[in-house]
Specification:
Number of strands of chain B: 16
Number of strands of chain A: 4
Number of helices of chain B: 23
Strand content of chain A: 5-15%
Radius of gyration of chain A: 21 Å
Low-confidence stretches of chain B: none
Oligomer: heterodimer
Structural class of chain B: alpha/beta
Low-confidence stretches of chain A: none
Largest sheet of chain A: 4 strands, mixed
Distance between the termini of chain A: 46 Å
Distance between the termini of chain B: 74 Å
Strand content of chain B: 15-25%
Helix content of chain B: 40-55%
Strand order of the largest sheet of chain A: 2-1-3-4
Radius of gyration of chain B: 24 Å
Largest interface: A-B, 41 and 56 residues
Mean pLDDT of chain B: 92
Order of helices and strands of chain A: HHHHHHHHHEHHEEEH
Strand order of the largest sheet of chain B: 2-1-3-4-5
Largest sheet of chain B: 5 strands, mixed
Shape of chain A: elongated
Shape of chain B: globular
Mean pLDDT of chain A: 85
């Protein structure tokens, strides 16, 4: 632990490090965290740990098929940078009652809550990963997978259900499932019962027919 | 500037009146989530552009929801000395004509919905827009007093909704806002609590527990620190008024909380806001910041020794978090599983300290009671339910919206007079009151009134005030299945009757709908419902079978039709 925190990370290297650790069985992760970070520190030679250092460690130490899986995850990482989390934790503090604030902020910044982020939060706040995972999966608001470039929320409230005589919600669902660029979730009543069936696309609420046309243009 | 004395408050009031009655034209555009969904943001930018390109001087105010959700976007135009004109269903291309009329000092008659000559404000009294009867030239537009949707309502809590800019604290003060706080701080805490008890204020969240008694218990409970919680969880399907309300008049909730904090002896209040109520969250945070800047919140409120902080907590999208112990767990950063009561939160709540939890509407009632006195407040409402109730009217209804009626108003008036009857000229089949946890009642029971006890006697509940109207084509078995499925999704999974029982009920309903049901299934559903109600740990489990129970009771024919 102490060795791990002595490293200064650069770019996405810390997120990549956490992804690598994700392949290690939970019980052994603590030991590996120390050992692997020591190897990386050695490679970095006192400077900041770069992305290539982590990649080199993966290439040298991890056997296949884990290696391929980890390298694939690195590519999926996109713009996510664990530094964001440092700032968020600094803003809120590390006690458990701040946990949801932290997760909300991560989702706002990153667009979702990557599992690597959960591990990083656990590492930095001292709250156990199981507790964090429990909270992040209990509350439906947190998305643990990357949403599509367009995100659609379909209201499942009573009024929307009643007023959706033409099955717009179902049509949208079919449309969205067929398109990888658009992701969808069903949500509790959005409080726009007069717009029923209400559909939220990228943060703006539309009435059903409008939404359908909009999504057809997107998908 | 910090407000410390009565004179400071008067000065702030003057400042608010400067924008409320600017001496030029004032244009109100409803900018709640529901309005924006219908295109109010487009209308607003068209107005901004129009005013700029014409070089017109006007006060363009982003107000909250007027409650006229069925005709949004709404625009109100108020010219000095003339009646205020309400325009509904305004579109981007109409703005040109509207501004032409404003420039000419006239009215677009074919677009105008109603005119407001004067309005009866619950705190300020009469607010006059038209100075004399012959002025204005708006006689061709019907008066707002002839509009059934508005006539039958009684606006106490919604007094400012849609007429003030929620992000401008001075406008709230101009409508006698924070006067109740000043008054309360000069009273003894016990006297405030006595006022609340005398007024007969009951918790608006659903249960209807007397709010004053809860406050008293919390005050008398020993603890180094006490907390207040304002519950804006509102996860039920078919209820949007708390969001609308918080977006339209956040300061009234804040004022209620500060008065409550002083009366109970709490120095911190948490406002739990549902996660996707982004606009409400932002406006409330702005309200907190503004009030703090004016010395109405924070340290030494209004120059007294009383200090208080209000924190906002964003929820996580779980219905169960409306239950008070689950809500506390959520604020503490744990998963929202309800806990055994007692100990009740008033003894041992948030962070194991005495905690007073009330619903957002309950808190909003507090400033009115303190400002007008319990005797005034008691005159509104029915025998055992005092005051008014904000309702969210939705479903197969002609005029949906956020409304407020005096307790004791009949459901018939709500549906037919205010709501304008059923959409498409169909017949009323059922009303669902109080969200999914409430029951469905048949059209024959529309003589019931909006009050806690009347609805309870019919096996349903007032809940937090959602009214979903269902027309004659509605299949009640499918509705029961839909609502049961909602509880399957939302059960926290802690106790077995709710987690497993409700799930089984949903599967049985599926079987019935698929035509494989038997008469025995109906009695089994009844038995299961009763067992789940008696064996579940929290209110979610105890109310989950109510949709099935009430539809079995009132709409048995629908079930029988499936069984044949």
């Amino acid at each position: 632990m102490s060795e791990a925190t002595a490293i200064t990370w650069s770019g996405k290297s810390e997120a990549m490090f956490e992804i690598m650790l994700g392949e290690v069985p939970e019980a052994m992760r603590g030991v590996f965290r120390g050992k692997l970070s020591a190897v990386i520190a050695q490679k970095a030679q006192g400077g900041p740990a770069l992305e290539e250092h982590v990649k080199a460690v993966v290439a040298e130490i991890v056997p296949d098929p884990f290696k391929t899986a980890i390298l694939k995850k690195f590519k999926e990482l996109g713009d996510f940078d664990i530094k964001v989390i440092d700032e968020i934790i600094k803003k809120h503090g590390t006690s458990q009652d701040k946990l949801m604030y932290i997760l909300h902020d991560i989702q706002d910044e990153v667009g979702y809550v990557p599992v690597e982020a959960l591990r990083a939060v656990s590492n930095k706040t001292g709250i156990s990963l199981s507790t964090i995972y429990n909270v992040a999966t209990f509350y439906k608001t947190f998305r643990l997978t990357r949403p599509g470039s367009h995100h659609v929320k379909v209201c499942c409230g009573t009024a929307c259900h009643l007023n959706d005589k033409n099955g717009i919600a179902r049509q949208i669902e079919e449309k969205v499932t067929a398109s990888p660029a658009v992701s969808m979730e069903k949500t509790l009543c959005m409080g726009c019962c007069d717009c029923s069936p209400a559909v939220e696309i990228d943060g703006r609420i539309y009435t059903g027919d409008e939404a359908k046309a909009k999504i057809e243009a997107l998908a | 500037m910090k407000i410390q004395t009565a004179e400071d408050l008067v000065k702030a009031k003057e400042q608010g009146n400067k924008t409320l009655f600017p001496g030029t034209v004032r244009i109100n555009v409803g900018m709640s989530t529901c309005c924006i969904a219908k295109g109010a943001d487009v209308v607003l930018s068209a107005l901004e552009y129009g005013l700029k390109s014409r070089n017109m001087n006007a006060e363009l105010a982003k107000v909250g929801c007027t409650g006229l959700c069925h005709m949004e976007p709404t625009v109100e135009i108020q010219q000095p000395g003339k009646s205020k004109i309400i325009y509904g269903n305004v579109k981007e291309q109409d703005i040109h004509r509207l501004l032409d009329a404003v420039a000419a000092g006239s009215v677009v008659e074919d677009m105008a919905f109603a005119r407001v000559d004067s309005e009866d404000h619950a705190l300020v009294g009469e607010i006059k827009y038209q100075y004399s009867a012959d002025e204005g030239g708006c006689a061709s537009v019907r008066s707002v007093n002839d509009i059934e949707f508005l006539k039958a309502q009684r606006k106490v809590i919604l007094r400012n909704a849609g007429s003030i800019n929620p992000e401008n604290i001075y406008e709230y003060i101009a409508r006698d806002g924070y006067a109740a706080l000043a008054r309360a701080l000069a009273m003894k805490p016990e006297a405030i609590i006595k006022d609340i008890i005398d007024a007969g204020l009951r918790g608006r969240g659903g249960g209807g527990f007397p709010a004053g008694l809860k406050w008293k218990a919390c005050r008398e409970s020993a603890g180094p620190e006490k907390y207040l919680i304002c519950n804006v969880s509102e996860g039920e399907p078919g209820i949007g008024m708390h969001r609308s309300y918080l977006e339209s008049d956040p300061h009234s909730v804040l004022e209620g909380l500060i008065i409550g904090g002083f009366a109970i002896g709490a120095s911190t209040a948490y406002v739990y806001i549902r996660d996707n109520y982004r606009i409400a969250l932002k406006r409330f945070q702005k309200a907190i910041a503004d009030a703090t800047e004016l010395g109405l919140l924070g340290d030494n409120i209004l120059g007294t020794s009383f200090s208080m902080a209000v924190k906002v907590k964003e929820g996580g999208g779980r219905f169960v978090c409306g239950e008070e112990t689950a809500l506390i767990a959520c604020i503490e950063g744990r998963i929202g599983e309800p806990c055994q009561r007692p100990p009740f939160p008033v003894e041992k709540g948030l962070f194991s300290r005495p905690t007073c939890i009330n619903n957002v509407e309950t808190w909003a009632n507090v400033p009115v009671i303190i400002a007008k006195g319990s005797a005034w407040y008691k005159k509104i409402g029915s025998d055992k339910s005092k005051g008014t109730k904000v309702l969210s009217l939705s479903g197969n209804i002609t005029r949906a919206g956020m409304i407020e009626v005096a307790m004791g108003t009949s459901l018939k008036d709500v549906v037919h007079t205010i709501g304008g009857g059923i959409d498409g000229g169909k017949k009323l089949k059922s009303i669902q009151t109080g969200g999914p946890s409430g029951g469905v009642i048949p059209a024959s029971l529309e003589t019931l009134t909006v009050d806690y006890d009347s609805l309870k006697s019919a096996g349903t509940m007032l809940g937090s005030g959602g009214m979903v109207i269902m027309d004659e084509t509605t299949d009640m078995v499918k509705i029961a299945r839909y609502l049961t499925d909602f509880f399957v999704q939302e059960s926290c999974g802690k106790c077995v009757p709710c987690r497993e029982g409700v799930c089984r009920m949903c599967a049985m309903l599926d079987e019935i709908i698929a035509g494989r049901g038997t008469a025995h299934d109906l009695s089994l559903l009844q038995d299961m419902s009763e067992t789940i109600i008696s064996a579940s740990a929290c209110a979610l489990g105890k109310t989950a079978p109510i949709p099935v129970l009430s539809s079995l009771k009132h709409f048995r024919d629908d079930y029988v039709a499936y069984i044949k």
